[in-house]
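Honest question from a wet-lab person: if I give you the sequences of every part of a complex, can you actually get the arrangement of the whole thing, not just the pieces? Trying it with mine:
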Amino acid sequence: MNIVVCVKQAPDTAATVTVQDGKVSWGDAPLVLNPWDEYAVEQALLTKEEHGGKITAISLGPEDAKEALKTALAMGVDEAILVSDPAFAGADTLVASKVLAAAISKVEAVDLIFFGRSAVDSDSGVLGAQVARRLGWPSLSLVAAVNNLSPEGGTIEVERMIDEGRQIVKGSLPVVVSVVKGINEPRYPSFMGIRKASRAEIPLWTAVDLGLTAVPSPAMTWPEIFAPLKIETKCEFIEGETPVVIAEKLADRLMEEKVI
Amino acid sequence: MANKIFVYIDHFGGRALPVSWEAVSAAVSLKTSYSSGVTAVVSGYEVGAIAEEAVSYGADEVFVANHEKLKEFRPEVYTSVLVKLMKDSVPEVFLMPNTSRTRELAAMVAVDLETGISPDVVAIDVVDGSIHATRPIYAGKLLTKVVCAIARPQILTLRSRAFKKPEPDTSLSGEIIQADVEVEDPVTEVLGYKESEAGVSLTDAGIIVSGGRGVSNNPSLTPIADITDEKGKEIWRAQQGFQLVRKLAEVLGAAMGASRAAVDAGYIPYAHQVGQTGKVVSPDLYIACGISGAIQHLAGMRTSKMIVAINKDADAPIFQVARFGVVGDLFNILPALTEALKKRLGK
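Yes, you can. This is the full assembly:
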């Protein structure tokens, strides 16, 4: 199986994120592999362990965005490619999906592409579906379990986590699969993996390498980023001699506030 | 003349999702800005009743794409149907409720039409003919304005509970138009469904009762004899704790949530997780039990209209966002609160 996993670098979720001079700042918090993408990488590794093949991790980002790829390499993917070009700055998902689809088309005979459900910075969660559409492949999103994968038969059966429960869907390869947390338990990079990753050459593909002579303009702009209004809450502590007294008081307050 | 405002009605099991009507009300709010009526779009099989309902929520006309191949939602086929409709009508705006179906659908439609998409929008304004949408990024730690200035239609998915839920008015009238659709063969096959582990949809819930790591800390419980390992005992204790959370949730008709710590420790399935890598929720009332309030959790629930925290640690950060707090033992407080509310609600 030829597997591609698309990953993104993002600030650690524990970071305090603020706006400084109109730009997002996460202080000195580390940049890491987007947590959702850990599940995508792990699923690629599990698939390879079962069916054999090769995994290529691809990341679209600025030139210093190699940490996510190094983590993927350290976890065990075979190759990593950074897709980066000054012309991609300000890309929206429409442009990003075009660039990623071009990059994936450059990787030979791909059967399966994994995405994490979204990135914890932009929270868009649309790129997997958009890449699938650009490639003309089916999209299986919000995948919580792969029940069956048959490279010979060219079929895949998954469970999707939808609002109402789980939907069991069968699709055909090649296919784009976006995964959710819970599908697996991502492994920690091994010591050997980290050493291998630190030495790995990560090729850089530019717009020219992808044959994108004219990079399309983004449809979307972000004129303003701002912090949410600080909600002024003064916590009213409910106290009492016994749990029953506290519970009665709290219940009364909730009824008065008409939230129940 | 064709309307400039289109709104998509998402439905499942023969019923529209509540957020679909919120999207209709958002569409209606744009009528003055665009000097246009609202066209609702219902795609599916035997969905006539939903189309009628869309009129009662304020749609001036409803396009119905009715076809047997649309019975099960598949993003690819639905995309083709919507793209054809968009190309025929070229609206300014196409609003969708944000659901587990429409996010993907909107993404694909945007690709085919080479237009922008703003997912999970919480507020809209019209400036010079373009929507300035507000959407959370970094799980709500920040907000961004998003504008699609040139490409049309502007496609937005609207977050559940962020826009007004309208009351239906059966005296309203509107035209229902059967759209002439050709439907391609689906590329995937739906084999079936399984019940949600979460029971009630967290994103739609008006009240959520959540449990955290603290629910496993009841020292007075003695695990049943055949559990010998420490992890097994911890999970058994946690399950007893979550029973108390569940009972309170049942009395309130609430959904049950959990912190990442509780999910990662194996106390409860991931479908319940609230926070940056779980569901982002905004209920009227959020009761956090034994949740300390890590930044990732607060990001997922801080826009709740009222937060109640029950925690034994008075310094827990959850109290900084709470309206009411109880510093105490949730194993005593929760059963007492469940009884107190049962009494008041006449249950």
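Two things worth pointing out. Chain B is about 30% helix and 25% strand. Chain B touches chain A through 99 residues (CB under 8 Å).
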